[in-house]
Amino acid sequence: MRSHLLSASDLSREDAIAVLDTAAELARVTDRAVKKLPTLRGRTVVNLFFEDSTRTRISFEAAAKRLSADVITFSAKGSSVSKGESLKDTALTLEAMGADAVIVRHGASGAPHRLAHSGWIDGVVINAGDGTHEHPTQALLDAYTLRHHLAGGEGALDGRRVVIVGDVLHSRVARSNVLLLRTLGAHVTVVAPPTLLPVGVETWPCAVSYDLDAALAGADAVMMLRVQAERMNAAYFPSTNEYSRRYGLDVRRADLLADGGIVMHPGPMNRGMEISAEVADGPRSVIVEQVTNGVHVRMAVLYRLLGAADLTEEASA
Amino acid sequence: MTLTLRNVRPYGEDAVDITVSDGRITDLAPAGSASGSADQVIDGRGLVVLPGFVDLHTHLREPGREDAETIASGTAAAALGGFTAVHAMANTTPVADTAGVVEQVWRRGVEAGYCDVHPVGAVTVGLKGEHLAELGAMADSAARVRVFSDDGVCVSDPVLMRRALEYVKAFDGVIAQHAQDPRLTEGAQMNESALSGVLGLRGWPPVAEEAIIARDLLLAQHVGSRVHICHLSTRGSVAIVRWAKERGVDVTAEVTPHHLILTEELARTYDPRYKVNPPLRTADDVEAVREGLADGTIDAVATDHAPHSREDKDCEWAAGAFGMLGLETAFPVVMETMVTPGRLGWRDVADRMSVRPARIGRLDNQGRPIAVGEPAHLVVVDPDAVWDVDPARSPSRSANTPFLGRQMSGAVVHTLLRGRPTVIEGALT
How far is B183 from chain A (nearest CA, A)? Predict the structure, then answer.
């Protein structure tokens, strides 16, 4: 594994499987009596959030704390773009505090890449979502969830069929998932109205369709993406009703999935828009589980990037 | 005072000694035959001499952003780049949209003395695209403005563009259009392509440039005006301009050095040093603008020298300012992309970097032949010199060169403005 996690493409197949295996091991350990491991004692992990994201921030905080790291959370919303403190100055501050890892969420695509490669800081940089670029730990937790339900919780996802539906154009979750799931051998189809697909999507390692029913037939999993309210005023589609009819997931569509097929959503959901309440709360839904898995996967990422000792030794110590 | 430039080869041809006096060339004699009685003698070492370069597109930032560049610092960089005239773009603070501002810019250029500064007047008041600025007053001022542009912003309203094209005919002016459909490029960060999709940076589609160019060429044809296209950057733009020229439309076009050599791949670094408007395009577009420059579809190389302060570039991509330095690296880029591969000869370089830009700007005493009686604006270049780009050695107040740390081949050695050296042996006098 590289020294930073900026993109899902930073992960080789072996790296990705190793992270998922570590996450599974950590889940077993922390589900037993020991909630907290001493692994990162004395290490400082900074959560640097330039955008609001309660769930991702809390997930990383919980992960770092369960590994006994000192956690500092910076909510620097609306920083340099709105002429507050610049990304660089924030980075220099963190460097002065001796951050071992910086988990960054930023509205600008590439901001974590800048932090990692500008020479401003020495610590490990973990991308917790940058603009419309990537969100690699979300992809890892999605892969973990898929593996649990579709592959017996081990190995890769070879041959599994995953459909990703919605605003692919603006979705960092979609980008990271397409890359990672392909690395793990899954067949991915992205489905969206043509206006919400990026130019060049045909070069991505996935299939592309405008027809949700056809794509869902016999698939092993469907991942619904949030449709942001502001897209509705920008002529990406005529109305929320039309979007919902053509690209929303209701019970009829969910039943097109293969037996045992699962329904996922990175949250927060627009119930009644991209997903109906019956499906979101229904038997195929693993949406709440995704959140739980997020903590274990993020523990695994911190664990591996901060170069902790071998897990089995530590768990038995 | 008299000066002899010994042993130089005009347009790379036979070596001569050039003697200048009172700002004009007074003698051209075979190398080694000049009398040596001049007040100053400069050894040309058999290097190539060309008419001084003329830049149609320079941002000098004064007035308003003197932290990034001044008329003095920018024209010093221009002289080092071999330029004897630059056109100072209008997007200053205040905007160069009145006779008062353009006269001030012009006068500051004269005071600095490194090269002629010809202010470009804004087309619309405050670059707002609502009302025509007082174009006639700027034309009649001491600055004698002939090029008008809202550069940085497109004159997107077709009626306003039509009126501007028509109005400047009265004083032989030209509208230099920054071709960018504003709606198609809202929030745009880089060329729209498969790469922008992967990087998650909002795309600036080629059609946003090409559609405006096509519209303006048809407008210019309809009203019988001339029009100049700033920094065209796509294969489609070259094809449209070529088509219009074949139909007799009075159009001229420029390309920047960076669009002749750099591609969108640099956006992968997310380093705003490579963020520019129009954006760096694909390798295929780079090839197309080279073809266009070679066959004359593109008339001029224009730098779009755009200094920005460190804090405007030392940040995340989205927060970074658009633009890059260009004056000191223009000639080496033309050398590498056009001369060395045999696509332009020395007379062609003179044509694209001096003669045609001077004609577009209606500058009577720039871009002239190297001949007795002509103004002594000259640049001596060494095609074989190799040097490293180092912003610390530049007089520019900014450091946002896209060629940082890169080795360039081809260097400006001497520059003469009206027979007076502004640069000798690569250093300001």
Answer: 11
Pairwise CB contact (< 8 Å): A108 & B319: yes
Domain range holding A223?
136-286
Chain B residues close to A86, C-beta within 8 Å: 311, 314-315, 319
Instruction: Please count the structural domains in chain A.
Output: 2
To the query of whether residue B348 is one of the catalytic residues in this protein, the response is no
pLDDT tens across B116-144, in order? Answer: 999 999 999 999 999 999 999 999 999 99
Q: Which residues pair with B91 in a beta bridge?
A: none
CB within 8 Å of chain B, chain A residues 107-136: 107-111, 113-114, 117-118, 130-134
Instruction: Say whether both A118 and A157 belong to one domain.
Output: no
Q: Which of residues 163-182 of A touch B (CB under 8 A)?
A: 172, 175
Query: Active-site residue among B304, B312, B348, B351?
Result: B304
Burial of A308: CB neighbours in 10 Å, binned 0-12, 13-18, 19+ = middle
**pTM of the predicted model, to two decimals?**
0.94
Per-residue pLDDT of chain A (317 residues; tens, 9 = 90+): 458 999 999 999 999 999 999 999 999 987 776 778 999 999 999 999 988 888 899 999 999 999 999 999 888 765 444 445 688 888 888 888 889 999 999 999 999 999 999 888 889 999 999 999 999 999 999 999 999 999 999 999 999 999 999 999 999 999 999 999 999 999 999 999 999 999 999 999 999 999 999 999 999 999 999 998 777 778 899 999 999 999 999 999 999 999 999 999 998 999 999 999 999 999 999 999 999 999 999 999 999 999 754 454 444 43
Between the CA of residue B199 and those of A64, A139, A143, B385, what are the distances in Å? 28, 16, 22, 38
Q: Is B357:B52 a contact under the CB 8 Å cutoff?
A: no
Taking Cα atoms as reference points, which of A230, A304, A303 lies closest to residue A2? Answer: A304
User: At a CB cut-off of 8 Å and minimum separation 6, what does B374 contact?
Assistant: B24, B25, B368
Q: Where do the domains of chain B lie, and which CATH numbers do they carry?
A: 2-49+374-428 (2.30.40.10), 52-360 (3.20.20.140)
The CATH number linked to A223 is: 3.40.50.1370
> Which among A80, A87, A200 is the nearest to B197, CB-wise?
A200
Is A33 domain-assigned? yes
> Is A171 found in the same domain as A271?
yes
**Is there a contact between B207 and B229 (Cβ–Cβ < 8 Å)?**
no
Q: Confirm whether A3 is domain-assigned.
A: no
Q: Is B197 on the interface with A (CB under 8 A)?
A: yes
The complex scores an ipTM of: 0.91
Look at A114 and B271 and tell me if their CB atoms are within 8 Å: yes
Contacting residues of B for A88, CB less than 8 Å apart? 314-315
Structure tokens at A270: 């627009």
Round to whole Å and give the CA distance between B281 and B287.
Answer: 10
Q: How far is B90 from chain A (nearest CA, A)?
A: 25
Q: CB distance B200–A87 less than 8 Å?
A: no
